[in-house]
TrEMBL record:
It comes from the Bacteria. Residues 1-24 are annotated as: Disordered. Residues 10-19 have a biased composition (Basic and acidic residues). This is DUF1845 domain-containing protein. Keywords: Plasmid. It comes from Paraburkholderia terrae.
Length: 194
């Protein structure tokens, strides 16, 4: 005698699925809800209640402000222990490097160039965030002065490109320091081996 296989009954499909969470692009996927940099910094109880207006001319400064500044400022606001020390050391080293580079460019004695600029208001959550804003201001000053030195043929365009690449690398390093959690840093600011 042959065995008869019965299929399970089909589920009731009369109810329509809830499409209120479906992504607007029609893929049917729910949108990913993450804290963006703006919402992240808005949720921080800041030590300082300061804001500043930053003027910038360079594309790098614009991209850094739009993609990294609020992330760094929020991570700086919640940093504790060794992470604060690591960030403080890196920000002071970066600011000092920019100061020396600016002085080196000033020795070339070139006329200043008026560059078009944009302005943005930034929230400063802690004094270290203010130091990051200072570094961004110094970067933009180096950007403009180095352009003037190239125009006056005091340095080559390749030298300027290397100078700006070094400056950008230093600011991107700050973002890398912000990423790990507080417990991944020793008290002296060194990153623990993983």
């Amino acid at each position: 005698m042959a065995a008869v296989l019965e299929c399970p009954p089909e589920p009731d499909r009369s109810a329509k699925p809830d499409l209120s969470d479906v992504n607007a692009n029609g893929t049917g996927l729910k949108p990913i809800e993450r804290l963006t940099s703006d919402t992240r910094i808005a949720r921080i109880n800041a030590e300082t209640d300061a804001q500043t207006v930053l003027r910038y001319s360079s594309q790098f400064a614009r991209d850094y402000i739009r993609s990294d500044y609020n992330f760094c400022a929020s991570k700086i606001a919640v940093a504790r222990g060794g992470k604060v020390r690591a960030l403080e050391n890196a920000l002071r080293d970066t600011s000092d490097w920019f100061r020396k580079t600016d002085a080196w460019l000033a020795r070339h004695d070139v006329r200043t160039i008026e560059m078009p600029y944009e302005e943005i208001e930034l929230v400063i959550t802690r004094p270290l965030s203010g130091l990051l804003v200072r570094c961004l201001t110094q970067f933009d000053r180096v950007f403009v002065k180095s352009l003037a030195t190239v125009v006056m043929k005091k340095i080559s365009p390749d030298d300027r490109a290397r100078l700006l690449a070094n400056a950008e690398r230093r600011l991107k390093h700050i973002v890398q320091l912000c990423m790990p959690d507080n417990d991944q840093y020793d008290f002296d600011g060194e990153r623990r081996e993983q």
